[in-house]
Amino acid sequence: xxxxxxRLAVVGCSGAVGREMLAILEQRRFPCKQVRMLASQRSAxxxxxxxxxxxxxxxxxxxxxxxxxxxxxxxGRNVSEEFAPIAARQGATVxxxxxxxxxxxxxxxxxxxxxxxxxxxxxxxxxxxNPNCTTIIILMALTPIQRAVGIERMVVSxxxxxxxxxxxxxxxxxxxxRDYVADRPLTTDVIGRPYIFNIFSHDSxxxxxxxxxxxxxxxxxxHKIWDDDELRISAxxxxxxxxxAHSAAINLMLNNPMSVAEARKLLGDAPGxxxxxxxxxxxxxxxxxxxxxxxxxxxxxxxxxxxPRGKGLSLFESGDQLRKGAALNAIQIAESLMK
Length: 339
Known about the structure:
- The protein is an alpha/beta fold.
- It has two domains: about 5-130 and about 325-339, NAD(P)-binding Rossmann-like Domain (Rossmann fold); about 135-320, Dihydrodipicolinate Reductase, domain 2 (2-Layer Sandwich).
- It contains nine helices and 14 strands.
- The protein has helices spanning about 15-25, 75-90, 110-115, 135-150, 165-180, 215-225, 260-270, 285-290, 325-339, and strands spanning about 5-10, 35-40, 45-50, 55-60, 70-75, 95, 125-130, 150-160, 200, 230-240, 245-255, 275, 295-305, 310-320.
- The strands form two sheets. Strands 3-4-2-1-5-6-7 form a seven-stranded mixed sheet, with helices on both faces.
- α1 crosses α9 (about 325-339) and α4 crosses α6.
- The radius of gyration is 20 Å and the shape is globular.
- About 45% of the residues are buried.
């Protein structure tokens, strides 16, 4: 548990997730007696507005993490590996948005609507892990179905936005749009390829078996969050020229039958999910409509005719990667600890 008026640090405050986190903290009127903005040398000395006041960005150091009750880390794996344990040893509760601690058996991997109860049994190591954005968005839609009838296998194809790669990639995608309109060569300094009008395999390392790191994260994190190592998952993760909000096409093999009508009712009542499934108007989840929203949009519900009747279900979803996929989920974890 943390105090109801904690001294707060946001590590990586100048990045895309960090800025979104500050905006959500304001929107939800998160109580705090102090906010410390921390970042790398590149951003130190600048100012960021929060709650109507300018706050100086400080250089991240062990000293800057002293006397902090709650620290949100959104500065990448290397920074978290070095500084999150320091913050924890100095008494802070760390909620980490990187991949550094997700598979550590001592660290809970939490989506509050799905497995928030693990915090009740948590033997406090000082660090809580925020899952990968793709995992959060996908499991928000699938968990109600998994709880109701069980899922034996899922095949996932993701359509991931520039926001998942950071602010610099978002800016480069916008610059490429300007370059194209002006008939100039496309700027590729950050992503290293044309992004606009293009789709490419997720920009993460590929292992010897041919799986990129994003696909592996989805598999391992789902097993941990659902506490189910038997679930079979096949994933293909790609980057698409969308500014923010990830989407996914999902095909399920169910343990027990579920009709489309039952799935629609279940998802329509699920917390953190909005059903968008109007066949007559051809209106289904779109990333442009998910952008800026807390809920994950779910629709295109249909039976899979290639499987036994009622045992196959297909759907499509979109969710804001910067909000529920990252910043919002971290803040919801903190709110759970304050109850």
